[in-house]
Protein 1
Amino acid sequence: MRDISLQLLAWYDANAREMPWRVPPNARQNGTLPDPYAVWMSEVMLQQTTVAAVREYHNKFMALWPSVHDMAAADDADVMAAWAGLGYYARARNLLKCARAVVADHGGVFPADYAVLLTLPGIGPYTAAAIASIAFDLPETVVDGNVERVMARLFDIHDPLPKSKPVLTARAKQLTPDTRPGDYAQAVMDLGATICTPRNPSCGACPWQQPCAANAAGTAAELPKKTPKKKTPTRHGIAYVVQRADGALLLETRPASGLLGGMLGWPGSEWGDAPEPAPPLDANWQTLNEQARHTFTHFHLRLTVMVAKVDARAQARRGSFVAAPDFDAGALPTAMRKVFDIAAPTLRNT
DNA sequence: CATTCGTGGTT
DNA sequence: TAACCAAGAAT
């Protein structure tokens, strides 16, 4: 059984993808391991996020906060602003919590232990196994979407996810070798990302073509099965963009938990079927023709954009004015940035 | 155990 | 255009 793991490692030696946070297989076999901080940063960013999207964010974060001590001492608003656009903002909040826990409780050193890693904020079963194996070369088994798909095909398992996850996890553990577990973890995920893809898998180029049960049965492309999900509803809301005579814009920091938690945004109504107007101040509001459309994981959002210009003495019922030189649309989550993009021409022309 | 939580690319 | 998908975690 284990010899097929070695086959995969041989494939990885020749086909490993290059990533800024990764130590290539030849260097790893010479005894070089990656910086656990960089690995942790990458794995948190990679949760439900593509490698392509993570690259520049990882570079930026490593430049701004090169060590876990820097991250622990970082200003929360700076980290949230730097994370803007990457999504799943609870990850950024947990990034700070985790860094501070590592410094406060673990002497500023990431623990080389799966069970201890699992106790840290934002580190679940996948990420704990990824850090343990990739950063410390411990024989832990990563089970992400790639591994689930590869195992479902390798063993021709037709039970739908997520119910089948325990079986897929057990299979993945059976295959994890004692030698080079870190490279092996990265190898299975690379295989899933480049060969054993969700659609149109390149079975002809797969190092596991021979042992693959789904390839033999001709079922690879239809695996893994998944329980169908319900369709996403549409919610509506109103976003208010206020500009003061000196150019300052009215923004508010959203509540620390929930959707876009801790992020900067425009004051607005609740989001639902028929939102009640909730202007942050009394003004001569102008409703723009174009709505901001944005899709979250579980609903579509259509925001009506309302714009007002107010004088320098204006007082808002909520939010706070941000001076024009301090405003950075890049610090907004995408839904809010779309609102700004729609409002910007009107702001300039009035 | 089901739901909540982003975003951009692909089909 | 709508659905699907990506190195999941927290509740």
Note: The CA atoms of residues 245 and 311 of chain A lie 5 Å apart.
Protein 2
Amino acid sequence: MVQYSKKIQAVPEPTIRRMPSYLAFAEGLLRKGQQFVSSTQIANYMNIDPTQVTKDLSYTTIVGKTRVGYEVKAIVDVLSEFLGFSVMDNAFLVGAGSLGSALLHDSGLNHFGLKIEAAFDINPSTIGRKINDVEVFHIDQFRDLAQELNVIMGIITVPAENAQTVADLMVAWGIKAIWNFTPARIKVPEDIIVQNTTLYSNLAIIFNKLHQERREE
Amino acid sequence: MVQYSKKIQAVPEPTIRRMPSYLAFAEGLLRKGQQFVSSTQIANYMNIDPTQVTKDLSYTTIVGKTRVGYEVKAIVDVLSEFLGFSVMDNAFLVGAGSLGSALLHDSGLNHFGLKIEAAFDINPSTIGRKINDVEVFHIDQFRDLAQELNVIMGIITVPAENAQTVADLMVAWGIKAIWNFTPARIKVPEDIIVQNTTLYSNLAIIFNKLHQERREE
DNA sequence: AATCAATAAAGAAATTTTTCTTTAATAAAA
DNA sequence: TTTTATTAAAGAAAAATTTCTTTATTGATT
């Protein structure tokens, strides 16, 4: 923990975005038994510049060895610690529809430090069911379970028009961060962290590149 | 179409990322019957700078009126055209697990111009089933269906370790763009467009902000 | 009719992020 | 042992993106 004290200077968001991929790659190498990996190798895998990799890793305590590269195990250990993946944080998920269920089924979240403690919905047919061992409650229930279970994150996977209502509930619950999967933008107090994850942005990027190609033809 | 000929200068990716949210917001206003919207309003909704909004919209043919703002209908029309959401593109999805099913159930993709024509898997229990009216085939079947159905996009929702194999198949199918939902990075010929969409990047950003707060306390 | 206030638009400046360049280290090869 | 090639690291430069500033327009107010 002490080692972070000098790193109050924020790490660039693009760097944070790339790090989980470095981690996933290193974990794969570790399984294969590879002991060292160079920035060139990582860069080749990621299709980016090697200096980008060294810059990114320089924000952590990882140091490489000239002519050898980085120790794979160090990347795995330091990066999962650095990204907050090695401490389990608890979350509530609201909206146990198709996307909600997919998240509940995703073991990757568990692996990366997020435990979904309970799910909530208003649909009577899903309430009471268990999805991948996580129980689905009616949204009116267990309002104050959040503090009791030390739940710090709320995941919103309801239809866009209900996003704000759910967000308000979560804030009232005392949640610290909201992961919003709807295209709607929510208004919350300043100290609440909001991360919007909208699939359609990615779709737009693909279409843009496709059409750019068409235009150039 | 002619109006795009001068816009070969690439639109910044961050701009493209924000545009679907502008569109979603404008669609909401249109339903409510609002005729004009100012950059300030949009910016307030998005929690960004108003000049950012005007810059972003200036990449399109949309023009605003001083002291009035932008015509909501124009934003909806021009932006969906601009983002490629008004023309239907066809896709194949490989990996009909939980995330795959979630995408198949998502009507938003249809709304934003993507039609998933068929799904593929290797799990005998899902093959032959229909998920939200999309049939699931064994991956060995219909290799050349892609060209027949004019499928230009492949969606990868298999486990990370199989991503490359599936990508190779898709390239062989003659697909132009790949939407990769696994944390694995795939290698494809240069002319194939790849869009990686990994949830864990978003998780990392949330954790980073949470821990930054803790560090500052 | 004159003034005021809100706005889009264009360009400049500042900031952030990526890429390039240089240096030093060191394992491998000669 | 000496040379060579590969690499990390640090800093500089370049590029991309965001924010700030100015200007012009125009609806609303006085």
Note: Chain A touches chain B through 67 residues (CB under 8 Å).
